[in-house]
Amino acid sequence: MILSEEQRRASQSLKNSSLVIGTPGAGKTTMLLARIDNLIKAGVDPEKILTISFSRAAASELEERFKKQNPDQKTLPHFHTIHAFSYIVLRDYGRRRGIDYKLLEGDKSINKYKLLSKFYYQVHKTYISDEKLDNLINKIGYVKNMMLDPKVVNTEIDSFDEIFYLYEDFKKKYKYIDFDDMLEEGLRILKDNYSIRKKYIDKYDYVQVDEGQDTSKLQMEIVKILTKKKNNLFIVADDDQSIYSFRGADPRGIFALEDDYKDLKIYYMETNFRSSKNIVLAARSFIEQNQVRYKKDLRSSKDFDRPVEVVRLADTLSQYEYILENIEEESYDQVGILYRNNISAMGLIEFLERKNIDFKLTDRSKIRFYSHRITRDILNIINFSEDPSRIDLLEEIFYKVKGYISRLMVDQVKALGGRGDALDKVASLPSLRSYSLRAIEDLQKSLKILKKLPMKDKLDFIYSDLDYKAYINFFSKKEGFGLQSEILVFENLNRISKEASELNEFIGRLKYLDQVVYKSAFNDKGLTLSTIHSAKGKEYDQVFLIDVYKNMFPSRSLDSSLKTEWEEERRLFYVGMTRARDKLSILYPKKVWDQETEISDFLIELEEACKN
């Protein structure tokens, strides 16, 4: 194993606690494996070495590479995720106490998504959107990993603490645990049970932690229990790549290590062996604007290549066309198309599928066409125009289109029952003002026009004439989503509708695209489509960062007082830049649907930083 001088120095730190600050492409995994080899050569029993990582993929890669490099090694070191290690502690404790822990995520009949949807409905008497459900799950994980009180945590989810405790009570009643509980219970057991705590402290003489910047407060407490007594922590981290605060990752734990461990040694691995000088220098100039970070002398081992390019294009479709024009078919497997938000993938997926171009998706579960909330709205509006007697559809759309219809009006009509035009019934309610009657009549006329329009014109009409645009604006503010994100979804759906001759063809296309999304995860060739979060740890010859405009990336306008959030968004952009080996293109459209975009703050910062 050939090591650089930086890797060699770090890998030879075998005593006391050490922190290794490793930049992107610095060979952190290579160094960790070299250190294990050095420990074994020094006479350490491999079973006394524990390496903790924070993803199964990373733990598996470490173990497989160790086996490949040491084929004759009979006794192996331990490679675990922090969750897997905690589960070992739980099962050990459970055997002693006769407790059978049931993993919620392993039960096919019931899962976290179904339970939290149920409890949200129980509290609010309305169904939760997919986006809000993801947010709710992330927030529960955040509360547990940051060891917070759910009653006082800030969240845009109403009655969050009530839903939180309904979920907790259900798990306790039926003896379930989820992945966050593994950590929470693991820490509790290690704190409260002397014999188990002593067993695992004694078991490992050397504890290595990979991707230390991704540790949460809860995870760091587990690590401290294992390592503080023996002062045997070896942690590898890059504070500039800490991008998972929504899960509870807290880079402050890295900065506090010097207070927690006596004589902590700090090593720097500052040479990037992955990216060209152009990319490294641009990324370095950009990330140095962050203030809460270890100072590093970032450099590249490679020569200058193509300059980092920033390209403004006419619209979103032009971005996709630009990508195809600037890559060779034989290099598709080495191209990553990265974005801040999964919504950016929708139009790209449809475009590539029409062009019969292979691609791989890393976040398929987050991308929906037919079942998307906006799709449901569109179909409900169209179906109501076809059958205005359906009060169930009016109940879904009355506040999403023009007409000034209230919940009380809809409830009164529901109570009346019977058949007939639902809007006629609303108009016949007593005490309606003249302006309300005119608004209802206008809505009826518009719905009749919508019914007669060809499919290619229906979404334009819904957006403008039925004023669904106003609802998108309202919803994005209410739920904290970026307006551009919502409009981008509508634009993608509208583009698909233009190719359909009638409604069933439109629906069929959306369902087919959902199948394409599902199957794409099994593809082993083609372009890679990924959020930057999911691309962390990956690398490509050529990277395209798309949809880099204000309120999309960074994901929303951040007040200057929100320094922590602003710096994390900047780190995310840095991670995206440093996935590229040779070519990096940053793209943004002038327009999304009918909205002019503004240049991203990050592109302004990048330009200014690179001038200095």
For the biggest sheet, the summary is: 7 strands, mixed
Per DSSP, the total helix count is 27
Annotation, overall tally of beta strands: 17
Q: What global shape is seen? A: globular
Uncertain spans:
none
Task: Determine the mean pLDDT.
Answer: 93
Beta strand %: 5-15%
| Cα distance spanning the termini | 39 Å
Gyration radius, rounded = 27 Å
User: What is the SS-derived class?
Assistant: alpha/beta
**Which percent range fits the helix content?**
40-55%
Structure notes:
- The structure is a single chain.
- With 612 residues, the chain is an alpha/beta fold.
- The mean pLDDT is 93.
- Helix content is 51%, strand content 13%.
- It contains 27 helices and 17 strands.
- Helix 5 packs across helix 7 (160-174) and helix 16 (373-386) crosses helix 20 (434-452).
- The radius of gyration is 27 Å and the shape is globular.
- The strands form four sheets. Strands 11, 12, 13, 14, 15, 16 and 17 form a seven-stranded mixed sheet that branches. A six-stranded parallel sheet has the order 3-2-6-7-1-8, sandwiched between helices.
- The protein starts with a helix and ends with a helix.
- The longest helix has 19 residues, at 434-452.
